[in-house]
Amino acid sequence: MEIMELAAELGKALKEDARLKKLEEAKEAYTSDVELQKKLLEYEVQQKALQGEITKEERDTAFIDIIQNRIDQLYREITESPVFLELNEIQAEVNELMNSVNATITANITGEEPSSCTHNCATCGGCH
């Protein structure tokens, strides 16, 4: 089998992995959450408003504080959302899987297994 055929087979196998299926479901839930999407849009708008106000020669510091407080509130609401938290958790699981796959490929190329734990899972694919 050619390398690209093997890569395609690996991709198909990964696509069937439960973690990647959960990731797609979590992404769908994230993009379908109307309230969360409204908060994300407002967050972007508030960020642009803040940038616009900060770049003015005569800044309204009270207005800047109001905008910053709203940005902080939106950030908390977004990052504490169950849908957001679920997506992040599943994304971390998929990242761990991909790091493990890459470490296995690298080990087979070099003939060397990753040595001792560096506490940086990017070097070995995660703790087992």
Explain the overall architecture.
There is one protein chain. The chain has 128 residues and is mostly helical. The chain is built from five helices and no strands. α2 runs antiparallel to α5. The protein starts with a helix and ends in an 18-residue tail after the last helix.
Notable traits:
about 130 residues; mainly alpha; elongated; 5 helices
Q: What would you call the quaternary organization?
A: single chain
Strand content is under 5%
First-residue to last-residue Cα separation: 31 Å
Task: Give the biggest sheet.
Answer: none
Report helical residue fraction: over 70%
How is this fold's topology laid out?
Blueprint: H1 3-15, H2 18-32, H3 34-54, H4 61-79, H5 82-110
Helix pairs in contact: 2-5, 3-4
Tell me briefly what this model is.
The chain has 128 residues and is mostly helical. The chain has helices at 3-15, 18-32, 34-54, 61-79, 82-110.
